[in-house]
Fold this sequence. Notes:
Number of strands: 30
Mean pLDDT: 95
Structural class: alpha+beta
Distance between the termini: 40 Å
Number of helices: 23
Strand order of the largest sheet: 3-4-6-5-7-8-11-12-15-16
Largest sheet: 10 strands, mixed
Shape: globular
Strand content: 15-25%
Helix content: 25-40%
Amino acid sequence: MKFKILLALIFVNLLHAQKFYFPKTAVTDSTILEKQLPVLASELMTQKPLLKLKQQSKVNFLDNLFRLEMLSKDYKKSIATLSDYRNEFADHDMVGNKFIAHEVYSLAKLIEKRDNITFHNALQKAFDKKYKSLSDKLLVRLGTYFDGDVNNFRKLFKKAIDKQKDKDSIDYPSALALCKSYLSYKIYASIKPQIMQLLAAKDQEKFIIETKDIKLKSGNTLTITIVRKKENKAPLPVILSNNIYAGPVDVLFGKRAAIYNYVGAVINTRGKRNSNDENNPFENESQDLYEVIDWVSKQPWSDGNVGMIGGSYLGFSQWAAVKKLHPALKTIVPQVAVGIGIDYPAQNNIFMSYMLQWIKYVTNNKFTDEADFNNFPKWDSINTAWYKSGKSFRALDTISGQPNKIFQRWLDHPGYDEYWQKMVPNKEDFANIDIPILTTTGYYDDDQIGALSYFKAHHQYNKNANHYLVIGPYDHGGAQSFGYTYVSGNRIDPVARISIDDLAFSWFDYILKNGKKPDLLKDKINFQVMNTNTWKHVPTLEKMHTSTIKFYLQDHKDIPSVFTQPPNKSFTKQTVDFKNRDQKDSYRLVSKKDSVKATNSVYFESEVLDKDLIISGNLSGFFNVSINKKDFDTDTYLYQIQPDGKSFLLSTHIVRASYAKNNAVRQLLEPGKVEQIPIKNSIFISKKIEKGSKLVLLVGVNKNSAWQINYGTGKDVSDETIKDANEPLEIKWYNDSYVEIPIYKE
């Protein structure tokens, strides 16, 4: 492992040691800079780091290459490379509009030279030509792709160029960053004002876009954006989204529904856009949306039928809406839905640091505070400062510079109590939800646990639930848009690269327009088995697997198989010092090619598998442990070590031990007593595991700046500080503990 780290450091040093001529006068003289950057870009294209990237990630290689070609003024080649990039990023021309600002700029430069006209006139010709070539589905998102943040691009460029002050050379990483930041700033500063005017004119030709305020019986005011195709004269079903992320995306969602020949309606939550009401995320959706649906269904452009769509918060909103079901609401399509109180702002009762960043994102102003939210160095430093300080988790908002009452209110509810429960349907509500529903989520979705919690509850309390699930190798963004070619660095099967938008609106056609049921929905559960290029279809989640194997907490080097219960009871002891805030991450070598992070974890490795397996479903089982404190937070990772030696993360699970049996009621552990911690709400996956692979299980303690730290005193974890750490946590992981792995067989 040390040798591997040494090689990595040598490679990084070589990158920085590689120098290119870059005159110091270019920092202050824009004319010299303009002449020097094309030369620098041409040099970078021939360097080993870029060529090596081609072997590691073709998408990232093409991403860098087309920019360098642009900067070196080879616009024709850049456009061709950008096309290759799009094809590599996603199939079926699903991203034919990605980096369209770069393409239109390149086209304009070619037209400017060919026709000997001004750049202004060339840009209009380029825009018109590209606009005509795009499908309606790609046209919908043009506003977001052209609406780049010029000020932010300028800041990034200034930061990159200022690094070169008083220097006459530049290293490879700095040169690449400088080229890319300069290009982004130059493109958007050059074309944004004119293009946004041209785009607005095109929208005016195609759509009727209206913004209205709705006064609720409660006295609150909400703002709604309505989008219709001009060519559609008759009333149509309305596709409604409830959006806390007020901004350009409101019109985007509206236009998306319109191009599928519906009326698009996007309602913003309290406190957003024109609403002067208090913004309390999640708390008022159920109450407000009943009235919104009623208003929408009675408008002259509505045929009286309403469907809902949206992901994440917008997915949660649909479940809030069906808590009290309006007769006009005929179907919902919740995508990657936040399971409020279940997977956010706490996952299995462990609060996450990200919650403060998100709260400020949606409450700092009437729209979304993109600049603050995307200032990742700022938030990393805040979370690190909190972690290093040893202060209570409640102090995180103060450390950020501003106390936050929403953050504090959420922390007052560490269990899944009435505060969270009243925001979404309860048992009786689920029993009465008789409309058809389509849920989408993914194996890499941050809100998979939440999305599936609604699905499970609906089927549990309503035996006739007309509720379908599509789950595949998608992340949080992909499961509400389309399947990318690569997810988390892994190439997904071609059959999984589908348009989620097309699926959703085919569903709306099926329910609201008596259309055909989407072909993919052959049963209630429709899941893609990774590494097989096939979809499977079963009636229940339980049918996703046909058997299970138990991975006991032991190592194959000590016994013939980790999948057989050990004959003699023993334990593996682990010690975690909560006072140590300077601990370095540790890694475990799993092959000559790879390692896995093993910080605060105990490592168990299986024997080499002698046959193929399909793991399908989520991990279950339990841990038998004894500790010297009253509580701790478990952290579990299951990896496949592939025959080529590379690791593949299959599933994870975290939980607060005191809430593992009941997420609403805390049950503290008794120090020194053997306690059982059930494994529930782990991450679903379906993947073929090839013969010659090994499985690696890491179990341990959650202790890092991304989450609360549970010191084990039994007090409210949000109030504990490093002073509560006392002696290190000692855990005995007994070998009759096991992680139960679901297996699918034809």
